[in-house]
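User: Can you predict the 3D structure for this chain?
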Amino acid sequence: MYLKNDHITLRALEPEDLEHFYRWENDTTLWAVSSAVEPYSRYILKEYIAFADKTIYEKKQLRLMIERNADKAVIGAVDLFDFDPHHWRAGVGVLVDKSFQYQGFGTEALELLVTYAFEFLKLKQLYAHVPVTNAVSKSLFAKLQFVHTGTLKSWLRQGDEFIDVDVLQRVQ
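Assistant: Here is the predicted structure, written as C-alpha cells:
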C-alpha cells in the first residue's frame, strides 16, 4: 500500500481536521515557510476541506493528513503542490505538529509521499524550498535522497530581514 506503513497512514482530509488546520495555519511561526501573511478563518478552512474532493489533476495540489496508526492521532500533514502533470513534477511540503516532532514521523511521512508520487503518480521529480536556516528540514530531505541544486537569494522575508532558500530536488 502506498500511503500506509506500520506506524502511520497518509489519509484524505476530513471535516474533523478543521481544528488542526486552524491551529497550524494560524501559527505565525510557520508563516515564513508557508507564505501566509494573514490568519485564516474557520470558514475559509472549511471551504478548503470541502474542496478536497477534487483530484490532484483538477486542483494541482494534494494535502494528506499524517495519522498515527496506534491511536488515530493526527500528527501532521504532507503536501504535493504546484503539481505539473505535463512536466511530471510537484513541490513537497511536510508539517509535523510540535508535540510529535523528533520521533521519526516526518521521515516516514515523506518516504510514503515520495513513493506515492514516483510509483503511483509516475512523477519524474519532486522539489522543496527550504530556508537555509532550517537544518532539521534539510536533513529530513537529505535522508530521502533530495539533493541541493541551488539557492534562491533573499527569497523569504522574516521581519526586516531576507533569508536564502535552498532548492532541494529528487529526480527519478
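Helices lie at 18-25, 31-34, 42-51, 56-59, 105-120, 135-143. Residues 9 and 60 are 22 Å apart (CA to CA).
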